[in-house]
Amino acid sequence: MNLITADYVYTPKGFVENCTIAYSDKIEAVDTLQVLSEKYPDADIHYAGKNSVLYPGFINTHVHLEFSANTTTLKYGTFMSWLDSVIEHRNDLLQECDNELMLSKIEEMLHSGVTTFGAISSFGAELEACMQASQRVVFFNELIGSSAAYADALYNDFLERVKASQHCTENDRITPAVAIHSPYSVHPVILQRAVQVAKQNNLPLSAHFLESQAERNWLEDGNGEFKPFFEKYFNTSTPITTIREFMHAFDTYPTHFTHCVQANEEELAYLSSKGHSIAHCPRSNRLLGCGRLAIEKVRELGIPFSVATDGLSSNWSLNIFDELRAALMMHHAGPLEQLSTLLIRSVTSDAANILGLNVGSIEAGKESDFTVITLPNTPSSIDDIAVQTIIHTQKASEVYIAGKKIV
Ligand code: MCF
Ligand code: FE
After folding, report:
1. Using an 8 Å Cβ cutoff, are 391 and 375 in contact?
2. Which atom of ligand 1 is nearest to the CA of 87?
3. 310 CA to middle of ligand 1, Å?
4. Residue 398 in this model has a pLDDT that exceeds 90
5. Domain ranges (residues) in the chain
6. Is the Cβ–Cβ distance between 239 and 218 less than 8 Å?
7. Global pTM?
């Protein structure tokens, strides 16, 4: 048994001072050091240091590791110019992205305290790096393919990748999962089949949805900036689905929808009514000119959401603190403390519930995934710890996964 004490511990009841956790691979008990050292007289005891704050390990639910080679190659500013640049440079970027590079980005996440991430994989190329990672990984096999002619082949390739990720589960840190790329890029017939695969195998399910105004215009009336794009690359000028039809395809299975920046109130209410959740990627949304997620509406409707980095195809780092800071700045209206607390919850317990993992919370029975950060000085009040953590932290001081100290 091990005991770890921090000056502050983030528990389901909020921040608690001078709190100790007894743990092995799972959390055994949360109490004072006095009580727990009497209960476990042989335990190894560790104090995380002055101004330490212990959190459950952070969870980044949405990242594209395959695009890790991008820094200045892709065009930012508007969604369509970005997408055009992805089409142009995709092959080069994928080729430049080897295991070593992906592992270095996985390390970057780890040092920011991320102990679980959701990897969106278009080709399965990052499976090896994910198997070598210290973290838990939800491996989202992405289905993409809008043309009916190629749909079957693309679907079969997707199924093979799903199987490959299921077979590596002797590595119990990898959870196989399904991602639908988007309403504009996945044919409804294979979409339905992929949703069934997720449902029958009880796999987490995710989809990019209503990211840009261009996507909305295209799905609503087959117009706007997507029209010349589809004419040029796919020789078609009609969308394959509608917003409504796409949403309905997920009616019976709670799904993690990424972005939803352009969803209106009615659509958000619909997502809420079906128990769906949102991955919110503020820096990606800003860089691709997509706008701001109405986080206050999302909250009001009780939609669970997670803050996530997206890939380096639309971001400059995979550091979860950089993302939390961006969220704090982007959603500038409303009380700072309340938003900070909500953001911390979004990368811990809410993200864990969304992905269906037994992590994200400091309570007995949960996996022992911890992230310790150290504040530069004593916080003015216990109510400020979430804000101070977000604005002052670049790196975690200690990281534990399944009870093992990794950082
Ligand atoms: O989330 C961002 C922006 N929206 C959509 N797709 C992606 C994002 N980052 C990477 N992608 C990938 C996606 O997985 O880019 C490709 C897909 O493989 C776009 S379609 C040419
Ligand atoms: Fe994405």
Report:
1. no
2. 21
3. 9
4. yes
5. 2-56+360-405, 58-355
6. yes
7. 0.98
Phi, psi (deg, nearest 5) at residue 348: -125, -100
Å from CA of 395 to ligand 1 middle: 27
Task: Look up the CATH superfamily of 58-355.
Answer: Metal-dependent hydrolases (3.20.20.140)
Contacts of 189 (CB under 8 A, 6+ apart): 148, 151
- Strands (E) across 147-202 are located at 174-180
> DSSP state, 67?
G
Distance, in Å, from the CA atom of 150 to the CA atom of 387, rounded to the nearest integer, reads 49
- The four Cα atoms 312, 141, 194, 301 give a dihedral, to 10 degrees, of -50
211 is catalytic: yes
Give yes or no for a contact between 247 and 270, defined as CB atoms under 8 angstroms apart: yes
Cα separation of 407 and 405, whole Å? 6
Residue in the block written with tokens 């959603």: 331
Atom of ligand 1 nearest to the CA of 179: 14
Cα dist from 345 to 14, 34, 255, 340, whole Å: 10, 29, 19, 9
- Say which DSSP state 169 is in: G
Q: Answer yes or no: are the C-beta atoms of 386 and 341 closer than 8 Å.
A: yes
Domain 2-56+360-405 grouped into CATH 2.60.200.20: no
Strand partners, 205: 178
Token couple for 14: 């909020």
Local confidence band at 165 (pLDDT 50, 70, 90 cut-offs): very high
d(CA 86, CA 392): 34
pLDDT at 172: 83
What lies within 8 Å, CB to CB, of 347 at 6+ separation is 58, 59, 60, 306, 307, 320, 324
Measured from the CB, is residue 311 less than 6 Å from ligand 1?
yes
Helix (H) or strand (E) holding 343: helix 336-346
Q: Within 13 Å, how many C-alpha atoms sit on residue 210's CB side?
A: 22
Distance, CA of 333 to CA of 162 (rounded, Å): 42
The pLDDT of residue 67 is above 70: yes
- Classify the phi-psi angles of 395: left when phi > 0, otherwise alpha if psi is within -120 to 50, otherwise beta: beta
Distance 91 CA to ligand 2 centre (A): 17
Neighbours of 189 (CB within 10 A): 13
